[in-house]
Amino acid sequence: MQLTKKLITAFVNAESQILKKDFVPYLELKSLFQNQTPQSRDQFREIFIKYYGLNVGGLTDTFKDEFFKILFGGNVIIKGLPDFNTILNRLFVIPRKQGDYAMPFSFVSKLVAMHSEKSPIYDRHVLAFFGEKAPDSNISIQNRINWFENFLNQTATDYETWAQDKQIIPILNKLKKRDSRLSQCDDLRLIDFLVWKIGNKKLLNNNEI
Predict the structure, then answer these.
(1) Domain of residue 151, residue span
(2) Helices (H), 74-121
(3) What's the rounded Cα separation, in Å, for the pair 57 and 20?
(4) Residue 186 within a domain
């Protein structure tokens, strides 16, 4: 996606509307993730579930246990790339409370993001920002996973380009002043916060880009 005046304005507005509750839990998670004690792991899990909404969508305790087993297991990045295919196939086969199955794209993106800040977050607000629509559930599992990987790869490419743009850099620098710990985050994660806010608050009409 090309940076336009409307898009730059949306980023400026998003930065001004970001609240501590939007990023402080992530910073706490980032700190806790470095500590492998059982107490830190329990605290991490509690904050993660609340911050990223794992108590919605009919997710079972079985799903959550497997999810955090993968997250803490470490075999998430293979040869420098997120192993989305393996993770999604492990989690997709766990039925929800309703007895059906759902592709947990959003939660898996957040799982991987704890291991790599250059891997974007995915959810409905990010889709709204880009004006995209997730593939229908009647499409094959592998094709849906391929779509997801391609979407995140393109998103990461856009974020990388934007992070180096002279119009975006001042916005990121202003955001970093909110909390000194934000300066320790990759710029792509900061753009994640901004993109999510734009999608969440509908600050950008994609038809007018």
Answers:
(1) 5-201
(2) 84-92, 105-113
(3) 25
(4) yes
